[in-house]
C-alpha cells in the first residue's frame, strides 16, 4: 500500500493537483481504512527521503494534501521554470500590495511586464487561463469574487500551496534587491516576513 500510495501521490503531483483523502481511500487504501494514517505517514516519509518532497495537509477539515518540494532548486523543464518565474512575480506583487489585489490591478501590472492576458504568449500560452485556472487549481493562487461589483471584479491572494512552498522573507528580499532598498523599508511586509 505504501509504495502504491507514493506512486499515486507522485502522479497527482505531476499536474500539481491537490490530493483528496477520499481519492486516497478509494483508489489506494480501500479495505485498509484503519491503517490510513500509518500508510499516509510512511508514504510521506519515503517521498521525503527519496525525492525531497514533503506531504503537507493544506485543509485539515476536508483532508486535502499537496506535495511540497523541500529541495529549494528543483531542476524542472524550461517552460515549468518560466511559469514558476511568472508565478513568483505575481506572488511578490500580491504580497507587496498587502496580500490581496484586484484582478484589474494584476492585469495592469502584467501589462507593464509586456505579458498580456487574453493574448497568446510565446512561453506561457494563454496567460489569463494560466493565472485564473492553472495557478488557482494548483492552489498557488486563490481568486475570490468581490461582491456587488459591476462589472464583476475579483481579488487574488496567495493560495495554500504558495503559503507552504514560498517564503515571504525570500520574496521581500528579492523585491528589496531589485529596488535597491533595505527590506525594512517596507515595515508591515518586513514584520510579516519575519513572523
UniProtKB/TrEMBL annotation:
Gene: Nsmce3
Residues of the MAGE domain: 1-193
Annotated protein name in UniProt: NSE3 protein
SMART domains: MAGE
Organism taxonomic ancestry: Eukaryota, Metazoa, Chordata, Craniata, Vertebrata
PANTHER family, sorted: MELANOMA-ASSOCIATED ANTIGEN MAGE ANTIGEN, NSE3 HOMOLOG, SMC5-SMC6 COMPLEX COMPONENT
Top-level taxon of the source organism: Eukaryota
GO cellular component entries: nucleus
Amino acid at each position: 500500500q505504501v509504495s502504491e500510495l507514493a506512486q499515486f501521490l507522485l502522479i497527482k503531483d505531476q499536474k500539481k493537483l491537490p490530493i483528496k483523502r477520499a481519492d486516497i481511500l478509494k483508489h489506494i487504501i480501500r479495505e485498509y481504512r484503519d491503517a490510513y494514517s500509518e500508510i499516509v505517514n510512511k508514504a510521506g516519509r519515503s517521498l521525503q527521503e527519496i525525492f525531497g518532497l514533503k506531504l503537507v495537509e493544506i485543509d485539515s477539515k476536508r483532508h486535502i494534501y499537496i506535495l511540497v518540494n523541500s529541495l529549494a532548486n528543483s531542476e524542472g523543464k524550461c517552460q515549468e521554470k518560466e511559469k514558476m518565474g511568472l508565478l513568483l512575480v505575481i506572488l511578490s506583487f500580491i504580497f507587496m500590495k498587502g496580500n490581496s489585489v484586484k484582478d484589474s490591478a494584476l492585469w495592469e501590472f502584467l501589462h507593464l511586464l509586456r505579458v498580456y492576458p487574453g493574448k497568446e504568449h510565446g512561453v506561457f500560452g494563454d496567460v489569463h487561463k494560466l493565472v485564473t485556472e492553472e495557478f488557482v487549481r494548483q492552489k498557488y493562487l486563490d481568486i475570490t469574487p468581490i461582491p456587488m461589483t459591476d462589472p464583476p471584479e475579483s481579488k487574488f491572494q496567495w493560495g495554500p500551496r504558495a503559503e507552504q512552498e514560498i517564503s515571504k522573507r525570500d520574496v521581500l528580499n528579492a523585491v528589496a534587491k531589485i529596488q535597491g532598498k533595505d527590506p525594512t523599508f517596507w515595515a508591515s511586509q518586513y514584520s510579516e516576513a519575519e513572523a
